[in-house]
Amino acid sequence: MSNNSFVSGSVSGESVSFYGALPEYVTVRPSDGERENRAPDGRSCGKSILGTPPSNTVPSNDNNKHFKPLLLGIDSLYVSYYGQLAEDWDKKLFELKEKAQSDDEKEQALAQVTIGSHLFEVRDKGMPRFPYVLLDNCFFIKVNRGKSRKSPMAHIQISSEYLAAVGVESAVQDLGFIINTLGLVHGSATISRADLFLDFTCVDDLYAIRQPDWVTRANLMAMYFDCRLDDPFTGWVIGIGGDVHARLYEKVVEIKTKSRKTWLFPLWEANGWQGDGKVWRMEFQIEKQFLKQVLIFSLSNLLEFQAELWRYLTHDWLRLTIPSLTDKKRDRWPNHPLWDDIANVYSSPIDQPRLKRFRPERLPHDERIFIHGLGGLTSFMAREGIKDFSEGIGEFLHQANKYHAHSAGGFCGYIQRKVKAKGRKYNTINNRQNSVGDIQERDQKARDYRRVKEGE
Predict the structure, then answer these.
(1) Are residues 140 and 242 in the same domain?
(2) What share of residues in the chain are helix, strand, coil (percent, to 5)?
(3) Average pLDDT in the 57-66 region?
(4) 167 and 267 in contact (C-beta within 8 Å)?
(5) Contacts of 222 (CB under 8 A, 6+ apart)
(6) What pTM did the predictor assign?
């Protein structure tokens, strides 16, 4: 398939959400009528299939109104550490994993471990090549117990929220302490994947972009729609499945329908977002193989050459252009004005606000607690024909106590078990704090520390 190949997000009349599964690849070209409606300067001047007059370019004398960057940087970061897991940690994680696999909820609740300031859940299942998984709201850590030098000791995803709160360098420094606690580490972290992003607002109608407008080294493209929306166009994916691929999509829709990353809103507002307009994200997902090709191996390399990498991606790997009807040489087509703004964003850096509130716990959203969580109570009241709220709560607790009377620990015991299980899942309650084994371990560490201190 040529570099101009196009993958439509709408197949057989059914629109596919940009955030869902990828559709079957199909080739779609603009109709003759659509091409005829394009003006000589490359701008669209006809009517779209939805009846909205598209415009590839919206001239503006005030660039602040035409384009406004809100946030940029590194959104997702995956790193690996090579080395050897310590034997005592191998044994400890194995025991905690067994507890997580237990049928006893009390045992499951103990499948957690504290390292530094982090209280991690230890999962009951590992992943390929990594038998142990630890996680909180900062890190998703996969740990390898093997001794092969070819496989990393640990592979970690650093959460985008944590990066937004403390920055890349502080996050990796925190992570380094954790991994060095687990075993003997050889060298510094190597980057497995990094996502560079720019969030911005603009007056351009991005739905008017057509497949030929993109000039790219990639072969595959996808245009996506979400038919639940009044304005169903949600974005593009370019370079699907490659070592580099780009995404241009409406971030507010993605937050509300999928990721729930509402913590981005105050960061945008700090740079002028009014809270009611569209925010577009230009994002490049860069895999390890490509990073090696451009000689970026370490975090320091990435931070040092971040602007140059963005320039390469937006000047050489991908461009949004104004096609020429007289010049068939696509690499000579001029950039769309919006693309110039996107490509040159690092030449005029914007303020990068940090999250003022961040918690390392994985907390459930209020909607889940105060809407979905009340489903049992409202169902009970409806079943019993009770309309009064106070009466409903009282009767609910009375019958719940009666129902659990013959279970271990009764109703209160059931509640305690569930709270501990949720505390493990949300990283909010240390269920091992008063366990005999952990107390003995803390005492031993304290004695070892005093012995070393006195020896000095």
Answers:
(1) yes
(2) 40, 25, 40
(3) 54
(4) no
(5) 7, 8, 9, 18, 22, 23, 236, 237, 238, 240
(6) 0.82
User: What's the domain range around 373?
Assistant: 366-445
What is the rounded end-to-end Cα distance, in angstroms, of the chain? 68
What the block records as the tokens of 163 is 């990066």
One domain for residues 291 and 241: yes
Whether the Cβ atoms of residue 214 and residue 320 lie closer than 8 Å to each other: yes
- 392 and 344 part of one domain: no
Mind listing the pLDDT tens digit for each residue in 13-46?
333 343 433 333 223 333 333 333 444 334 343 3
Residues 355 and 373 in one domain: no
Residue whose entry in the numeric block shows the structure tokens 């300031």: 117
Residue 453 within a domain: no
Q: How far from the centroid of its chain's Cα atoms is residue 301's Cα?
A: 22
Task: Mark whether 213 and 153 lie in a shared domain.
Answer: yes
Q: Does the residue 22 lie in any domain?
A: yes
The candidate with the shortest Cα–Cα distance to 287, out of 192, 215, 203, 209, is: 192
The Cα–Cα gap between 126 and 94 comes to 11
